[in-house]
Every structure is written in structure tokens, then in C-alpha cells.
What does this fold into?
Amino acid sequence: MQESETDKAGEDSRREFLSLVTTAFGAAGVATALWPFINSMNPAQDVLAASTTDVDLDPIAAGQSITVLWRGKPVFVRHRTPAEVAAARAVPAAELRDPVSDEARATKPEWIVLVGVCTHLGCVPLGQRPGDSRGDFGGWFCPCHGSHYDTSGRIRRGPAPANLAVPHYSFRDSNVLRIG
Amino acid sequence: MKVKSNGGNRPRIVEWIDARLPVFTYLQREYGEFPMPRNVNYLWSLGAIASVFFAILMVTGIFLAMHYTAHKDLAFDSVERIMRDVNWGWLLRYMHMNGASFFFAAVYIHLLRGLYYGSYKAPRELLWIFGVVLLLCMMASAFLGYVLPWGQMSYWAATVITNLFSAIPLVGDMLVSWILGGYSVDNPTLTRFYALHYLMAFVIAAVIGLHVIALHIVRSNNPLGIEPKSADETVPFHPYLTAKDGFAIVVALIAFSLFTFFAPNMLGETVNYVPANPLQTPPHIVPEWYFWPFYAILRAVPNLWIIDAKLGGVIAMGASILVLFFVPWLDTSPVRSARFRPIYRGFFWVLIAAIVALGWAGSRPPEGAALWVAKAATLYYFAHFLVVLPLLGRREKTLPLPASISAAIKSGAA
It folds into this structure.
């Protein structure tokens, strides 16, 4: 009598174990099968491959800016005047919301290269064209929600949480900039 | 097909079908005899009106899809071709555009009706929750659809809204490039938004089905907020409510026609007739009117402690809808209808004022008065649900409830 009850209990726990393992196996299989679908939505290989843009710097006079397209995003290239460089370097980095020194952002002081996408909600800030508002710090101004950036593209006022991003770039010659 | 309540006299073909799949019995039970409280007012027609606008969106959307091209170089022109060259294309598109506005308008009134008369209280909590799920699905679908014409506001709405996800710590940027299929809003974004917009129509249809099934289990609330006690306090859905809803639908369609035929672009943003330009943000990014209150909440949150304004805004905007899920439990009052809750009634109208103020602020640039109005109204919006509803339910001295719907009608109170 007692023995058969133990057998029955053993049978039940064996059954429970088997259904648990089967369910877990099935769930893991479904989860694995989902991955190709999820990953198909990530950037495709052709999107990943279109990664560098070259810019001829010769025609850009001091004080001028140009906008180029890199990975579908605008990139700001500004030839800064000595006054703009001085303004950017005079600020103690520690006082900023996103504290980075201008020296760390611009390898050549006269050239600042920035991804022209406001770090708040992705608008393109103004300040590239001669008539544009450059905000209260002489850099860029985002009209969407009122973020002010300085001449180093650092956030100084407004809702944006971070500085304008500096893309990876290098100078191929003295006059050619490669972004990416 | 004419269906008689007397089952024995039904045509043989009806009997044949009904014995195999009882659709006629079902229709007769749920839309013929279905008992409705006899005191429901016209606010109880908004569900039917919303269903009609959803049907308009489905039908016009399917036909628009036959002419639309989901490619970043062709989308804008294909929409212009619909407007100029496709036979009646302008009508299909204007009905779809304005149909979305009217669908939202009907659903917002429907939702506020529920808040006023306490329609979310037991046993209708799940019915209410399906309603909030529907609202979320509608908002997703409206956003996805708005991107498809690939105008300036389409492009920048897509940019701003997808960037909201970058506020999520750690995985935010990965998530954004997954949603976009790239590093910026581009062709992969457009094609997937098109597929998902089409999908959402059927998701919404399914959730409407659940909403209606749940309604037919717990049945309609009424302006008194007390359950019908006997058969003479209800009327059969047909012909009483079919006639009443039918009249309300005609009135709504007249208003819809006024917009569609005489002011088709009044509710839209003209800048969306400029093709998308990734290098230039429009000076003032603003969503369609039905998103203004939520857009105001998004921008009203300042930097708070360790949460920056961006993450805070995203959390607040999400919470402004999520809080609705919990209303059946946040409202602790045993009395449903605001008719018998004099203080709640006052707070309800303050909530309406706050939502209207948020709407106004959401349509303006976030500076000066608009920003302060948005901040104050956002505070009230959350206080209403999180503070007023729980406390008021315990403290408020409610008016005496009538003994029954019939008694209220006899005394002239209904």
C-alpha cells in the first residue's frame, strides 16, 4: 500500500518534470526562431557599409560652416574663428552639463566637426547659415525645444541632455576631412 | 437579411446556417433583444460613432494602399498622384485624414463619458482596460500612418518620436537603430512603418472585438450609474438604440462631411505638403491636434535630480496614458455617476480644463506662458488621478442614489 503510494508520487513528479522540460524546450525553440525576425529589423549590411564621407576643406573660410550628409544624418563642419575657439576654451569644463573640454572635442582647434542632431529629440539645430540664430552662446540653437549649444557644440541651456556628438573623423591631408 | 425574433418563421436557409453556425441567433441576442438601460443619453452613442469612423478608415485605407508607394523617393509623389490623378483619390485621402481626427474625437468623448459616469467601476474594469489598449493602438497607428506621406512633418515627427526611445538608459540607442533600421529615419523606416500601419488596422479591429464582447457580458452603464433591476428598466437594442445611434451617426457624418468637403486641411499641418528634407527641421514641430496634450506633457518636465528632462518627459508622457489603466482602482468611491458626486463633478471639469490647457500648450513652442501652463496642467493631470481620485472616494459626501432607474424616472431625476 505504502509502496504503491510512493510509486504514484514518483510518477507524478516525473510527469511534472517532463512537462516542465517540454515546455521550457518549446519556449526556448520559439524564442530562438524569433531572433531572425527581430534581427531583420536592425540596420542591414548595405546601411552599415555606407559609412564614410570625405569633405574638401579648402573652400571653407574662417567663420563659415558647411553641412554634409553622413549615414543619413547631417554633419556640421565649422571653420572656427580665433575668437570662437577662445570662447570655447575659456569655459571651465567642470561647470557644464556634459563636461568635456574643447581640446578633447576639436583635434585641430579651428575645425569643429559635429553630428548635427540635437541630443534632445533629434531635430537639426540652426546656426549653419549666415542668417540663422546661433543661440545665446554663439554656436547652434535648436528651434524645436530651445536648446543652446556653444561654439564647441556643447549643451549650455535648454532640455538637451548631452553635447552634440563628435563623429569619428580624421584629416587625410591638410585639406581633406574624412568622417566615419 | 431580415431576422425575425420568432425563430420558427425564419427562412429555411437561415435555419440551415443557424443550425451549423448560430450567427443569426447571436445577432438577435446581442443586437436585437440586447437589453439597454432605458435612460442612456446621446453620450452612449459615441461607441457606435467611433466604430463608423474606424470602418471609414479601414475602407479608405485599403483603397489608398492600392495607389501608395512606400519608398522614400516615391512616397510623396505617389500621395500627390492620389490627390491629382487617381479617380476620387482626393476624396479617399481626405476621408482618411479627417476620419482619423474624427475617430480620435469620438474616442476621447467616449473615454471622458466613462470617466464622468464611472463606467470603469466593477464589473466593467476589463472593458475599460481594453478601451485604454485601444487608445494606445490608435495612437501607434496614427503616428505610423502620419509618416507615410513623407512630408516634412512626417519625417520630423518620425525623428522626434523614435528619438524618445533613446532616452531609455543603456539600450536606448540600440533600440532606436532597431526601430529605424538604420541610423536615421530613412527608407527602411518608411517600409516597416507602412507594413505596421496596415497591420495595426487589424489589431485595432481585434481589440474592438474584445471590447464589444466584454461590453455584452457586463452590459452598458447609464447616466445614473445604477444597474437596471427589472425588465421594464431596459429597452431592446433594436429598434430603440439602432434608431438612436443611427441618428447620432448621421449627425457625426454631417460634421465629418463639413471638414472633408469644405475644410479638408484645417486639422492638418500645411508644412507636410513640403517633401521630407533630412537636412532641415521645420521651425516649429507640432503633432496633429489629438496628440497636443501628450506632446505638452512630454515637454513640460524639467531636469529632476538624476533624471534628465528628456527621460523625465518620456516617462511622464507614457505615464499619462498608463495611469488610465489603474483608474478603476484609483477611484475608491462606491458611487459611479458624477451626478451623485458633487465634488468629483467639480474636479472632473478641472481635469477637462487641464486637458484643454495642455492641448493649447502642446500646439505652441515650449517657452513663456505655454511652458508654465503645460507644467501646471501636467501637475494637475497626475494629481487628479493619483491624489484626487483615491482621497475623494473616501471623503466625499455623495448624494442619495435613487432606489431604481424607474424610481428616478418617475421623480423626474433621470
User: Anything to note?
Assistant: The interface with chain B takes residues 38, 41-44, 47, 67, 69, 71-74, 117, 119-125, 142-146, 159-161 of chain A (CB under 8 Å). Chain A has two domains: 1-42, 47-179.
